[in-house]
Structure formats: structure tokens, C-alpha cells
Give the backbone structure.
Amino acid sequence: MTLTEDRIATAVAARMRDGVKTYGEGDTEVRALDGVSIDFEKGRFTAIMGPSGSGKSTLLHTLAGLDSLESGSTFIGEVDLTTLKDRPLTEIRRSKIGFVFQSFNLIPTLTAEENILLPLSIAGRAADPDWFATVVSTLDLDDRLSHRPSELSGGQQQRVAAARALVTKPEIVFADEPSGNLDTKSGAQLLDFMRRAVREFGQTIVMVTHDPVSASYADRVVFLEDGSVVGQMDNPTTESVIDYMKKLGA
Amino acid sequence: MLRASIKGLLAHKMRLAMTALSVVLGVAFVAGSFVFTDTIDATFNSLFSDVYAGVDATIRPDTDNPGTGEPSIEEGLLADILAVEGVDAAAGSVAGYAQIIDSEGVPIGGQGPPTLGFSWVDLPAVNSLRIAPENGRSPQAPNEVVIDVATSEANALSVGDLIDVQTENGLGEYEIVGLANFGTEDNLAGATLTVFTLDEAQRVFGLEGQFSSIDVIADPGVDQTDLLASLNSAVPSNLEVVSGEQQTQEALDDINEGLGFLGAALLAFAGVAVFVGAFVIQNTFRITVAQRTRELALLRAIGATGRQVTLSVLFEALVVGVFASALGVLAGVGVAGLIKAGMNSVGFGLPEGPLTLEPRTIIVSMLVGVVVTSVAAVLPALKAARIPPVAAMSAPAARVGRRPLRTRAIVGTIVTALGAGLMALGLIVENGSSLAMVGIGAVGVFLGMATLAPLVAVPFSRMISLPFRGITGDLARGNTARQPRRTASTASALMVGVALVAFVSIFAASVKASVTDTLDGAFPADLAFASTNFSVGVSPLALDAVSDLEEVEVVSAVRTGLVTIDDVEMNVVGVEPGTVGAVYNAEPSIPIEDLGSGLLVQSGILEANSWTVGDQIAIDYPSGEIVDTTIVGTYEDQTFANLMISDVTFLAHVGDDISIGFADLAAGVSLDEGVEAVDQALAEFPYIDVNTKSDQVAEAEAAVDQLVALFSGLLGLALVIAVLGIANTLALSIVERTSEIGLLRAVGMHRRQVRKMIRREAVITAVFGAVLGLVIGTTIGFGVISSLEGNGLQKFAIPAGQLVIWLVVAALAGVLAAVGPARKASRLDVLKAISYE
């Protein structure tokens, strides 16, 4: 038993146990997370899907230490985030977690390069130059480094955000609808890159999306409804995800 | 539309409060200065009306009748007056200078309010002094005096104590037999009062057989005009008859002349406060309009006209203006109360009485507050009208604006140049409007520089933030550079305050340097002695006592007075030609011994009047004589501008009061020995202060320092308003950057780092404003001092240490301004901030 637990523990980048989170009170109470337990294995690209209000964003936020649980616990590696105060939690976000949001991803006064290096600058650390070069060239940002966000296209901005998420070599990257504000082509480019980061660099990514096409880039899809995990699917395709969702809806 | 404005206002109470506060402070000073002057007026009015209530008429020398010298009232006139029809009673009295000396030999009072001596009048109806039963009795014997209650309390003197009193006839010892009130007050505006018997008063004031004035009470039912007329026909033509009301009015005018400067100074500071406040208001409205772009665009999209949008912003300004001005008026009453209490605590005996709030005060203050607020909001309001409806649909991302700045550069340069030109003109020409020209010119310079400031905001923030390393420094720099106009506009409020304090510091330092320079160059004398009492000069007896000393080589008296030439008043100095050369180097063009009955003219004055040596000038002396005098030469030193005559001429036509005595010590006598000997020789004249040269420098510097401290304190108000402005801008820009700060927190920025970033932003802005202010203040200082070169300000000094202190103060002000906004930013809920739009 210990052997199995150990093996699982080392292979899991983030997990939640019995996570509960509610919004509102009385009649208007909404259970955003209703006792969720879930693991995210290292080196895999997981998509979280579900209709609006299913709790998928809350799941992402609590896993990333941006929001707190009412009961239950969340772990990044072996660190229990629910026990941490603001300061160590900030340290965890800085060193072990990467973020890509739907919008407001970049600091407008900083150049693309400065934005990418932001978490390291905040920590007062220098970047690994080889890794920085690898990330930048993989994301096709070499000739955009000195530009400010206002001089970049939406797709380029999201790729800068992705580079920023990867540059610290985090244990896990959380992405919240990363292609939500992008056109189809830019979105596909970004998702393709995220999949490559998982395949080529062994990165762990958890992504929230409501788009079956986006979800098809993942290794695994987790379906949420009314704050509970209602299903999972490995190696999804656009069609299989749509079929599954139809089934859920019915 | 109106409802939308009101809802918007209520939704942003904090913003409203911060903007309002800057208006409140300015208006409070406007209202305060009115309330203070009105209160002074009202309380003194009631005091004097009370004091002169019993007096129907007063006979006194006619001072407006020139050319007759100081007329006197012979004692015998009293009998004639009593015989005049309609006169019920009359009493004569004398008045003069009387300095009370405490048991340590130190004069009491006299540095400001006068030291007055009177004779006791045994006619209660016309006697303004009242002795309460428990406070003793009136003086009956030559060695008895009554003093005022306030002086007795302040110096722990009581009935039965012995005091020395200095008069022009020397020092005498008296017993206090009573303590008097002036009307209902303990004191008269800080003056010390000493009351003698009539005979003793006549003796000590050198008025034997004479009165200074005669007060008259009419028979019941006698018409005042008739009384004045019949009295007028009974008195010699060199005397005049005035009513009690006229005396009240004259006394009031005297008080107003003395305290009027305070009202004017307060108004000037109010002007500065309102001006600085206008910057803060304008900036706040500009930012809020930018932040409400989407909301205003939505209004436009659903059919509001641009005019309506403008009006809605102006309406908001109007509400803020009315609300804040009302508070400002209330605060102004408090300000006036504080000033009154402060003045009483340093010895100005202002009469008791409630603070006076005239309708005029309320109207003017409200008007100033509302108009300034509205005018400051006009530009942002017009800008709001230009927001296109489509802006409602687009994301309000924080823009990094780089709009063309050429128009700004041209307008700013023109306004600055016009302002500077007007100032220069005001400094060069000398007429009634020069001060106003300098003032308006300064406003122009400030507005012009504020317009130009955005052009240099970016390079300046780079430079100032050089010491700020790391990401917080980079971000702070980026934030101040991202909206140069906002940064510059925020800094401008501080710029005005710092420019003014820098100017005052530089002016003061230059005065100090000039004084030292003059004393070193022009006054070789070892010692100088002058009266500490404003109302009396150095007695000739004192001078004789000093010149008798064997430690003293030379003594020379300098007398100053006023004469009129071609209807222009000019300062004249009377020197002793035989001795003055040893104690005062005026750099004369001829040996000063050859002055004779001629006239020396300070060279600048000679030039200004296009006179030449050899001209005959008609001098109109205070004695009434007009004497044609030949200009025999010139002199350079400006300490005693504008004219120099010999002591003989001075004594004959001006008077005998000595302003300053100089003494040069004999060879081999040390300074300490000399001072001691002179001190002893002057023991009988406690009001005369003996100074060495370093004492004089220190004294002059102390006086200047006091002035600087006063000005800096009041200008501190401008700094307070500027700090409010910085805090307001920061708070607003944090709201704008909520999601940005959320992102920084999400990717791992600590709360402490967020606070540091905001603090650095504030410091960069504050130092930027301070540097601009220092540059402007120094430039204006240089201009003003250069233009005053002809008036004894020959040195331009920059007090580097003080200026650095102001810079540090500004930086600290920035830190202070950042406290609230930084705390707010660091406590943002990360999740909410990320999803904030």
C-alpha cells in the first residue's frame, strides 16, 4: 500500500481532496465545489470542461491558491495550500505555478521580454538563458521581445503570457480559457504550443475551457457539473467531447 | 441625466471627499482671513465705542496743519473751555512714552505694541481706565502709579510692588497703587500702560503747564454739532476739536493699519491654497472622466448629447464645490479662532468677543470655492464630451498614451514667457500695480510650467528613479511615465508649494548675506547701540555717558527721519561729520568732514532723479520749513539711503531723536571689556541695547529666520494640499490598474512589494514636482533679487542645505501620500482583481 501511495504521490503535480466551496447564502446558495477529489498527474495536459456555473473556474482558482476552500484541501506537489498564509502562498505561486488568463495577462508598461521575466524579477532571480531562449523560440517570439503589449496582436500577447508561465519551470501551469479572446488561427497556434510544452518539456498543464475544440488538444478531459466531477475521458477528440457533452446534457 | 450624475457622485464618496478636502482647505483660509479681520474690527469697535462713550468732544493739537511745529495746549485753556456754553465738565490729560522696567532691569513690552504713559483723569465719564474695587486705587502722590491688569498679570506685579519706569526724563521708582482695565479689557492690544498723577506725568513727559488733550462732556440736551462749533471758536487755530465717534474711528484705523497686514497675508496664503487646490481638482476630474469613459460612452450610445455629458461632469464639480465650500466656511471660522488665540498667546491683547461671520464672508468664500472647482473641471468636462459612443463597446484597457505634445510645448512656452515677462515688468516699474503684476506673472509662470511639465515627465521620472533598483522600481518608473500628463499634473500642485518656499528661503538667505556683507564693509565700528523700544530713540544723555568712557575712542550718533522733495517722501540721515567716518563707511565722493550745510545723495537716487552734483534741491522738512540745499556730493552705501545731511542741519529741521549710536573702542581695549564698560555706562537706560557686530548679524539673521519659519509654516498648507492630490491620483490610478495589480500578485508579487511599488511611484511624482518647484523658485528668486540690487540686496545666495531639506520633505510627503493607496493596493483580493473590468 505504501508503495502504491508513494508512486502516485510522486506522479501527481496537484490534487484536491473533498474540496467544498459555496457562494451566497440560504435560497441563493450555490455549491461551486461539492466535495471534489481529483488528481492531476505530472507531464499531462488536462482540460476541465463543464457548463457555466459548473464550478470549473472555482476549481482552477482554488487549485492555484488564488481562492480558498471552505473544507477539504488542495496540494501543489506535497504542499497543502489550505494551511498557508499569504506570504508563503505568494512564494508558491511565484516559484511552482504558472498562469495564463483569458485577458489582462500582461503589464502594459513592460516590454514582452520584461513581461516574460516578471515572476523571476519579482523573486529577484535570473533566468536560465538557455531555457529562456528555448521558450521564446518555441513560441515564435524572438523578434517581438522589445515590443510593448499595445504593439502586439492578441495571439502574440497570449503567447507572451504562456512564455511567462513557463519560464520559471513551474510544477504546474493553470490556464483559464487561454484562447477565449483569440481568433481561431491564433487560438489553435497557442493550444498547439501548450501541447508541445507537455510533450517535449514534460510540463503539466491544467486548462479550463468550454470549447470542445480546445479540449481536444488535452490528454484528458474532466467534466464538471453542479460542483461535482461527473466524468472523465482520455485522449479526447472534438467529436468525442461533443458526444459526451450531449450525453451529459440529456 | 441629472439622476445619473447624482448616483455617480454617491457611488464614489471617497473620491468626492478627497477632492472636496483640497477645496475645503483653500476656502477655509479665504473665509478665515475675512472672519479674522471682521472680528478684529467688531471687537475693537465695541471696545473703543465703550471707551469714548462718555466723551462728547476732545480738544487736541491739530496735526494736519503743517508748518507750525507741534502745538501745545496751555493749562489755562481748561478754564476757557469750562466757560463755553453747553459744556458740563472738562478734564485735561497728558500722554507720553513710559517704559516699565522689571526687577532684573529688563524692559517689559515695547517690541511691537507701544508702551504708553498717561496722567490719571479724575473725571470718570471721560476716563477710559477703570480700577475695580479689589484692584486698588488711583495714583495720589508723585511716586504712585497705576498699571494695566494684563501687564501686572503677565509679569507677576501687584499692588504695593515697586517698579522702575523709564521716561524721556530718565528713570524713576514708583509704587503700584492700582491695576486698571481699559474699558472692559485687561489691556489695549498688547500695549503696556503706566498712569501717573497729572503733575508727575507733566513732569516726566516734559509738559509742565500743558495738556496733551482736553476731554469735554456736554450739558444734557446740547446738540453735538453746536458743541463742536462753539468749542472750535474758543480754542486757538492750531488746536482742533473732534467728536468721540471720530476718535473711535481713528483708533480703529490705527489698529487696522497695525493688524491689516495679517489679513492681507492670510488672503495671499488663501490664494496659494486655492490655486494649488485647483490643480488637484482638475487632475481628479481628468482621471475620473478617463475612468468613466465606458460609462459616459454608454450614455452617449443611448442618446445623450456631448453637451449633456459635459454638463453632467460640471454638475458633479458644482456639487463638490458647494459642499466643500460650505465646510470651508465653517473651517474658516475655526482658522480665525486659532489665529486669534495664537496672537493672544504671544502677547497681542486682542479684545474678548465672539468671532464675526458676515454674510459677505459666506458669499465670497462660497463663490471662490464653487467657481474655482467648476473652472478647474471645465477642461475635463469638455474632454468628456469628445468620448465617442463606440468606446462603450471596447475594452477600457489601461492605455499607454503618447499623444503629440507639440501644441502643448508651444502653449506652455508662450504662457511661461508671458508670465515671466509680466513679473519682470512688475519688478522694474514701480507703481501701485507692480505687486499685482508680479503675482499674476507668477501664476502665469506656474500655469505655463505645469503645461510644459508633461514634456519632461518621462526623462525626469527615469532620472529620479535611478536609485530604485529591481522590478518594483521598473514598474514604478513605468507607471509614472505611462501617463506623463497625469504625473505632471499631480506634481504641479507640489511644484507651486515648493517653488514658493524655495523662493522664500533664497530671498531670506540673500537678505542675510547682504546684511552681513554690508555690516562688514560699511560699519567699522566695534559697537552699536539702539533703543529696543519702537516709540523712543537713544537719549543724547546716553551718548554723552558713552563718550565719557576712557575705553571708547569715538562715539557718533546717527539720526534718521523723513523729508519731502517734490511731493515725494525720502529717507534722510543726519550724521556727525567729524566722527562718522570712523564708524560708518558710506563711500562718499567728497571727504565727509566737508559736508557743511550741504546735501549728499546716494548715487542710485541721484541717478533716478536725474540730479547732478551742484544742483539746488528744495527740501521740505517736518518742521515746515522749506530749505534750498546744494548737492555737494554722493555716497554709495545703501544702508542709509536716500539723503545725508549733517547733524546740525538735522537737529535744526527734523528732530533730535538718535536712531543708532556707534562707538569705536580705544586701542588695546578688548571687545568684552568695551561691551562691559558701555553696558555699565548705559545702566540708567535699560531700553538701550548694546550690540557687537556679530550680535547685529545674529539679530538680523534671527529676524529673517523668524519670517522664514512663519512663511514656511503657512506654505506648508500648500504642501498638505499637494499631498492630498498625490494620494488622490494614486488611489484613482490603483482603481484603474486593479487587474494589473491582481496579475502581479497572481504571478508572485508579495504585498510588501506592491506597497513598495506604489510608494516609489509617489516618491518619483513628488520629487519631480519638487525639482520643478526648486528650479522655478530659484529662477524667480534670482530675478527678484537682481531687480532689488539697488535697494541693498547686493548678494544672491542659494541656501543649498535648506533646498535639499525641501526636496527631502517632498519625498517624505510622497511616502506619506502613498500610505493609504499602497495599503489599499496590497490588500486587493487577487481573484477579484484578476476578473475586474
In short: The mean pLDDT of chain B is 83. Chain B touches chain A at residues 395, 397-400, 470-471, 474-475, 478-479, 481-482, 739-740, 742-751, 753, 830-831, 834 (CB under 8 Å). The first helix of chain B runs from residue 2 to 11.
